[in-house]
Amino acid sequence: MNKPIKPFRPPCGDCGGRCCQYTAIEIDRPVSKTAYDNIRWYLCHTDVHVFVDHDRKWHVEFRSRCENLAVDHTCRIYDDRPQLCRNHGNAEDECEYYDSPYLHYFSSREEFEHYLCSKGVDWRFKQPGK
Ligand code: SF4
Ligand code: SF4
Hints:
Layout: H1 12-15, E1 23-27, H2 33-43, E2 48-53, E3 58-62, H3 83-87, E4 102-106, H4 109-118
Antiparallel strand pairs: 1-3, 2-3, 2-4
Helix pairs in contact: 2-4
One iron/sulfur cluster binds near residues 95 and 97.
């Protein structure tokens, strides 16, 4: 007899609520000097990071804890939480407790510049007189 399949329940109590500590907005994959420079600018700001996910989509990330995350890492508005939260972590392969969502992660301008240089990307604008 087949065993009944148990619904997946992420171990939120153990993980420290890591998916509740940021917001992220998808951005276009940078392919121009202006786009590279915009990302450099994002990364000049405290707690603003940029990442590429496993689908190679680019995002700007704001490291900002949700106001509804309680000290014990439970959600204070669980029954009324946004749909986006409901959709997250419904499957083991979606929950970042098990796997990093990042293909590339840039937490500083220097890291991003190093990445571009390692790819041979000409990202610098020509400065007048140089
Ligand atoms: S990352 Fe996964 S385990 Fe951690 S709080 Fe989010 S859904 Fe729960
Ligand atoms: S509303 Fe609740 S589930 Fe959604 S990010 Fe905030 S604490 Fe997490």
